[in-house]
Amino acid sequence: MTALRSVIALREHHAAQKAELHRKFSDPAKAAPLLQALAHLTDRTLGELWDRHGFAGDVLLVAVGGYGRGELYPFSDIDLLILLPDQPDPALLEKLEVFIGELWDIGLEVGHSVRTLSDCLAEAEKDITVQTALLESRCLCGDRQRFADFRDTVYRHIDPKEFFDAKLLEQQARYARFQNATYKLEPNVKEAPGGLRDLHLIGWIASALGLGNNWRKLAAMGMLTHEESQKLRRAERVLRCIRIQLHWTAKRHEDRILFDYQNPMAADFGYVDNQKQRASEQLMAQYYLAARIVSQLTPLLVRALRTRIFSQIGVEVTPLNERFQLRGPVLEISRPDVFQQDPSAILELFLVFEQENYAADIAPETLRALWHARARIDDEFRANPRNRQLFIDLFRQPAGLTRIMRRMNQYGVLGRYIPEFGKIVGRMQHDLFHVYTVDEHTLMVLRNVRRFAIAAFTHEYPFCSRLLAEFARPEALYIAALFHDIGKGRGGDHSELGEHIAADFCNEHPLDPEDRKLIPWLVKHHLVMSSFAQKRDVYDPEVIEEFANLVGDQRHLAGLYLLTVADIRGTSPKVWNAWKAKLLEDLYKATQRFLSARSMPVQSWLEDRQAEALRLLRLYGLRDDAHQAFWDQLDTIYFLRHDAREIAWHTRQLFARIDTDVPVVRAKLSESGEGLQVMVYTKDVADLFARICAFFEKAGYSIFDAHIHTTRHGYALDSFYVYIPDHQKDGYRDLIGYVEYELANQIARQAPLTAPGKARLSRQLKHFPIQPRVEISADERGGKYQVLSITAGDRTGLLSTIAGILALNRIEIQSAKIMTLGERAEDNFLISGQILSDERAVRHLEGDLLAALQL
């Protein structure tokens, strides 16, 4: 009982001391010393427990990893190595098992390994992570001389060249997991580019070389200037303090600065909302600044360490011009004062790097000189015709544009040359579908457009690649991508603001006259094609004619299509899907056809669509007149709202069931390859749409498009496009059978509609709620229909809630366009109903919908 009580007492003492340290370092901005204090507290706790067991001196308790560096975050794992004698006896192993169990009893989150020296060396040989952890080892208990011998042995077995290459490959893989993006809205403070792990990387490589991992030491060796050393130390302190507070706020080991934590953390740091920025944005601005400094300066150190590891003796120097030369595969300035004497060389550096296929990197001293010379980019620099030509030439090179633009942004050159771009660097977007800051998103879009032009990526989007290959002067698209969101954060419509900024830029730079008009036009209209595809009926000839009149010609159409695809793909990995790709491509091809014909009467569209549907029906062996009785019940609107393939599918399923008393439900894999296409045919009832929505929502399926049609003889003929969760996609055959059987049964039963359960909100919506918006307006084309537009936070049951309210008010839905952007729903319905002619009733309906949409 005494041992048990002592363990309990030790647990209580450790918890009390940890809480005291939390109180002592309660100011998050000054919390960095807490790391050492927590490590020392843990050292003492482990030492006391170790001594109680009376282990022999040849058994070592060693701290490794981050704990081995002498720093411990509030809820980080405590990484331990128990170093055994070469021949451990069974009694020792049993004693160690008890010791490890007591570590958990004390409440320590321990990651441990129990090994001999030979075991350690063998594991380090196989796993670079183990080798790295051993570099950061600290003796806690046991014979110090044996530990010193252990350290010496570990270091002797490290090959600095192999270690360096392995850690750089590890970094590349880590960056790839984060899409090489420094400025995500919910960044990982430890692992993301510009995070703490990049600083650790320098320490590991320096330690492998026996240089230590102190910034002052590295500066004393000439690898950093004093100013750079101070900047890195400040950035490291900011990142550490943010990670410490993140742990306290989450009350667990958490390295992602999620929206859930940004507001409370900002309050803890003392930030308050002001007219320009939320408190959370002010906190994240400090994170982005620190991450940017790390991203700027650690590559200099990596390259300096590479030079130290890999001998430069005998490396061939190749002059390129009087300002630049290649030292092996590394581009460098030919003398230290190049940028000071000729500021235009700042832009020329990036152009030469693009043009030289053999240039693998830029020398650290050149980047350092660039960093210190960036202030030379002023109004006079921007007005220099040579510099304007150099900047445009960057967009005309066959390779390297994306890499160059990222470098220019990383070192502050891009934001200085285009001051308006500097204002969007690190700017957050709380629209709940962008996952990057504005500048990071912009560079993602530029990358996406550029990939269309690279042969190695043709397989990703063959249609886009073909269009770009045929697009004269593609630099116009790249520049439009760079400017498309540059107006954000200024108040007002960012597309129109961006148009003016882009127009000024184009008028000042050496561009083709046609492109000087095209680029601002693309910036102004970069959201239009997406809106048409996702909110309008892309199979309606009048919609196509309206869109064709907007774009005017093939070049504008192709440019807008390519920019739109790149833009949607650059918002978030979750926003783009095959259905959106199909809608955009169908809109492009229909518009292209209209532009080619110059005019396309509705009757011509109708005849062509019906002829194509009949051709498809003949492939299935139907007699020539099999369709007639069914088509007699369909009006012109049906044929204009459905493409030929869908008309043929409906006809095959229904030509023999025109007057059925039993609901017909048919489903098939969508032609987009993602989700199901579902047809429902049954006698029409007022709340049918709401019932169908409720069925899909209960099953966990998302509706992203719906065509609602009523035949001449009173049957509902509805088409739904349904997205299936990833974990259910392997069993499409079973899903089709389930939907066809269960939905038909539910419609046939006509059970009373039940109110949807309480929706579970995403964590993003909890912290950044979307104010619902409801608007009912006349259809632009006139007629008996109204357009209901709804914007709200997306959640389960949203669509059936809307449909239920409309059904109660005897509102008929003619079509539904369901657009989900991350956590944001933007839905549009074409509706009709008697109450829509009563202004007071319409206001009441809008109020009911708003009340139901409130989170």
Automatic annotation (TrEMBL):
Pfam families: GlnD_UR_UTase (PF08335), HD (PF01966), NTP_transf_2 (PF01909). PROSITE patterns: ACT, HD. Residues 677-758, 787-855 form the ACT domain. Its cofactor is Mg(2+). It comes from the Bacteria. Signal peptide: none annotated. Modifies, by uridylylation and deuridylylation, the PII regulatory proteins (GlnB and homologs), in response to the nitrogen status of the cell that GlnD senses through the glutamine level. Under low glutamine levels, catalyzes the conversion of the PII proteins and UTP to PII-UMP and PPi, while under higher glutamine levels, GlnD hydrolyzes PII-UMP to PII and UMP (deuridylylation). Thus, controls uridylylation state and activity of the PII proteins, and plays an important role in the regulation of nitrogen metabolism. Has four distinct domains: an N-terminal nucleotidyltransferase (NT) domain responsible for UTase activity, a central HD domain that encodes UR activity, and two C-terminal ACT domains that seem to have a role in glutamine sensing. This is Bifunctional uridylyltransferase/uridylyl-removing enzyme. It comes from Silvimonas terrae. The gene is glnD.
